[in-house]
Amino acid sequence: MGKTDKNILTTAETARLLGVSVRTAQLLIEGGSVPSWKTPGGHRRVYRADIMELIERPAPGSPLPSATVIIVAGPERLAGYERQFAAVPECTAEAFAGVHQAMFAIGSARPHAIVVDLEPRDAERLALLRSLAANPLLGHSRLLAVSAAGAVVGADLPGWVVRVGTAEQAAAAIRASVVPAHAPSAPADALFPIALNESQRLVALERSGLLDTPPEEAFDRLTWLAARNLDAPIALLTLLTPTRQWFKSRFGLDTPETPRSWAFCNHTILQKGVFSVEDLPSDPRFADNPAVVGDPGFRFYAGAPVHDNEGFVVGSLCIIDRRRRKLDDAETQTLLALAALASDEVRLRTIERQLRDTLRKVEREASGRGRTSPSSPPGKRSANEPREGDRPIPSPKQSRRRWQ
């Protein structure tokens, strides 16, 4: 197996991905929990898709992994939700004043939570809430009803619909719910801040299939545009692993990666908008950063988060300068727009990978090499299986108010 083959894993690679010991991974593989086969040398191999399925397989009644929150509220109250969810780094909020637009988003986003604001009393939004509560396909989504007067919600809603009185209480309830069960807490002496659902974010990053892949023109165009339009000598598309800041695309910088502890983007991925530092040496968070005090002597940074199709932040698009400076409003909007384009590219690649994995699994099952025959070797790619350059046709984007 070539070292660059990202679709097949050794036992040690499986252990690292699962976060368990090699012995535990070996037991899982040999016990049949994961389909596997033996190489001519007698070593077990597994498909990455099967390991990701094992990671993402929810326990009965648990929500599917998503960081998207759909908010339905009157136009006069949307700004209040924007302020509250700007302080929740663990989720991506999409807000709608129109019920029909919200229904389309709910059907396509697989949201972690849906917030329906009933103030002032609105019959259409109340009917939407009742319809959502009765829909068994939304069993993975949490429903929150916001109403200062609890009786407004009505007595015909099931008890699992969370009733809160304010947007602030809704944001707090959702943030508490995004933490995976038994998730380890960040150590007090951590070198950089992390979100409460960092483990889910890392799964999303792995699911994107972008780590350690060759350069791609689509991403290189974005870093080039960022550098040229924002008059910056350096522009980067970064992905953050537990230990590394790896550059999917880089303009003006030769280094392919840095330790994650060096990454200014650790702060960017906790933001909804642009995170900017006008003078890095004078900021106590970065004054001792090796990239600031030594070569290359960075002075200015600005970055915007890049999201996957489930609302998780996998990295950022950023610019760096060796002089002190400040972004104006137009430059800020430019960086946000380019980061949104980068997010679209990430989502396309996630869809491509899911399609390839599904077709590969169907092919294995059809040829008798699925779970019923774990010791069979992998087959050749089907003629119908998409190649790396193939792209699915994305569905039309819907008009929505999105906070990134």
UniProtKB/TrEMBL annotation:
Residues 359-404 are annotated as: Disordered. InterPro entries: DNA-bd_dom_put_sf, GAF, GAF-like_dom_sf, HTH_17, SinI_DNA-bd. Residues 214-356 form the GAF domain. One of its GO terms (molecular function) is DNA binding. Residues 369-381 have a biased composition (Low complexity). SUPFAM superfamilies: GAF domain-like, Putative DNA-binding domain. Pfam families: GAF (PF01590), HTH_17 (PF12728). Residues 359-368, 382-391 have a biased composition (Basic and acidic residues). PANTHER family: GAF DOMAIN-CONTAINING PROTEIN (PTHR43102:SF2), SLR1143 PROTEIN (PTHR43102). This is GAF domain-containing protein. It comes from Ancylobacter dichloromethanicus.
